[in-house]
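Fig. S4 source data, part A: sequence.
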Amino acid sequence: MTGMPAHKPTLPFGSWPSPITASRLVEGAAGVGEIRSDGEDVWWNEQRPGEGGRYQLVRWSSGNQRHDLFPAWDPSGEGPNWNARTAVMEYGGGAWGVRDGGVVFANWADQRLYRVDGAGGTEPVAISPEPMVARGDRWSEPTWLDQERFPGWLVLVRESHDPDAVAANGEAVNELVALPIDGSAVADPSLVRVLATGADFVHSPATHGDQLAWIRWDHPRMPWDGTELVTGTLALDAEGCPALSAPQVVAGGAAESVVQPGYLRDGTLVFCTDRTGWWNPWRLRADGQVEPVIAGGGTESEIGGPLWVGGLRWWTEFEAGHLLVTLTRDGADSLGVLTADGEVRELETTFSEVVQVVEAHGDHDVLVVAGTHTAEAAPYAVDVVEPAGHLPTAAMQRLRPPRDLGFDTGWFSSPTHITFPSAGGRAAHGLYYPPHNPDVEPVDQAKPPLVVMIHGGPTSAARNRLELSKQFWTSRGFAVVDVNYGGSTGYGRPFRELLQGAWGTVDVEDAVAAAEHLAGEGFVDRHQLAIRGGSAGGYTTLAALCFHDAFKAGASHYGVADLSALAADTHKFESRYLDGLVGPYPEARATYDARSPIHHTDGFSAPLIVFQGSEDEVVPPAQSEMIVEALTAKGIPHAYLLFDGEQHGFRKAENIVRALEAELWFYGRVFGFTPADPIEAVEGAVGLG
């Protein structure tokens, strides 16, 4: 463990030595995403940078034993290297499910569905037909049908990239299908039965007895704009296969977002809707009408969120009529008990972010994936303790021990939620992290550089939990603000809709306002302001550097440079996203050009470093290369790193390390400090010494 020195050295901001190295971010790292219960066993997935970024499935059994489902990673690439990851909607999620010890998962390499019987130890067996083209069928949200009525059947989302289907529809086809789990569909593809088709997107199937519920939506809406909740009745047809009848829309619409439908034990259908301005749980009554579960109509906290990926869960029933829910407000999450009489009672926990809430089938009430300001996200078993006359409390058991980082929590900077004024009289929000290093004193009267972080999406939010990627900066003497600009989630639908028609304006103004607010309050050095972001955050970064002069440096990670190119060349899920954020294309071509940094490169003057994955289907490499060419033509200091084999977001350990170290090296060159870390210079960098 790193101890406190007897006499702290005084060092310039940015040059502070820190044990939170870039390599430490990935050594033994395992990003826990989804969690599920199977009797006494608990399962979760772990995204492991040290294993090529693959998703391993882990089973926790009694006695606190953990078992990997797939064999050890083969770095030579000769082994199968099973990877439970789906490419549905490109962002994936919901790639696996488990019941009675049997696991079904989508394998990343070929996107086919596989089954592993028992608790593992057997080779996965394909259960979906081989598609006409490689990775042509993609699967998400495997859900078991009632095994008394429909033994051996699953319902899933299928995204078909079959050439004939694409030719007929002009894009991939998303459908809800039933599939036998025994693998018989491999020899007889006709056993894959389509249950729901016609909508551009279907998602989130839920079952109870012979009842099936799901959500659907059409272009140009995104799922946080408007979805429909549909129900239907299942029965076996003459061939013994599930068939759907009497589908009907029971909630949702063009201006109402429904997410996570699910059935209570008594068969009541519950779902989260933002019809009141906040995602809150509602239920379907026997008479076909819907009503809020929360007394008084709801709460001004989000119980729900944007459906970027499958597998998301914000509520679960833990005893008859009682729900455990996530509550998001002021940039942080908490857990709450929703009682049978509709009262919401917040649980006292240390969690600042909760990303999964599911029912436990063993000795515990609920399973969650959650993080705190001093602990990375991990799986927990939660029991709700509700003594008479007291607020409910939670007894928690962490199911995966924290990795040994080699340093204690004294190195971590804790965030403060800030609200600050922005353009047009708006208020924006953010999480502010001051620089912090227990072994160093700052130079007297000096102020730290600021890194303004812009989340992706853009319909998303800053993560409020321990992330070493932020502590990497604060422990070296940087201040950090993670901005929740207008359009971010977690603050209600009206705030989310501030970005409608205004992407490239509201987000950029709020990013600038965050930096100016912190500089104006005397927290940071006005002359050392940097902005960084990935994907949509990369676009905001580029636009802020192009159209404003507040920032003295920037880092674009696979950022959008040309909005028209993005509208014309991206995947199905986001192919009409910009209709709402910017305007219909090509009718609004003038607006697209006006907000695209690539058409206004004369506005660039601050140094920029650009990172890109070679296989990115969301933001193709050509987007980054356009900006690099423009910077070269203008003679602006810059650097460019292209990572071979990476998609949208970097998953390989060596690339994560290199990108972070290169960014630190870049800021050192721009702001005039020497990092304490030995860092290899970026090859081909221009004008950076």
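Fig. S4 source data, part B ends here. The two ends are 36 Å apart (CA to CA).
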